[in-house]
Amino acid sequence: MLTISGEKKEELEEGEQEGERYVSERRFGSFVRRISLPDGIDQEQIDASFKNGVLTVRLPKKPEAQHPARKIEVKGAA
Questions:
Q1: How confident is the model at residue 77 (pLDDT cuts 50, 70, 90)?
Q2: Which of 75, 73, 47 lies closest to 59 in space, CA to CA?
Q3: What distance in Å separates the CA atoms of residue 4 and residue 47, rounded to the nearest whole number?
Q4: For residues 35 and 21, what is the distance between their CA atoms, to the nearest angstrom?
């Protein structure tokens, strides 16, 4: 189980841009997300990064869980 929790805060921005006045308000709160991990995930190699407000979590598969690609023949309608 992967648990992600955090808190977003309130932001208020006021100003002028291209001769027009603007106001930007953002209100946030705390959150928790729980995600079931599939079988075959290498839990020792899980990596997470946070950049520009985006959380990226990488869940690599164990070598034995990786299946080689295979070609599937598509048959035409008779």
A1: confident
A2: 47
A3: 13
A4: 42
Residues 72, 78: Cα–Cα separation, whole Å: 18
Does the pLDDT value for residue 48 go beyond 80? yes
What is the value of pTM for the model shown? 0.53
In the predicted structure, residue 78 carries a pLDDT above the cut 70 = no
d(CA 47, CA 56): 8
Rounded Cα distance between 39 and 42, Å, is: 9
The H-or-E segment that residue 14 falls in is strand 11-17
Q: What is the DSSP letter of 19?
A: T
How far apart CA 37 and CA 68 sit, in angstroms, is: 21
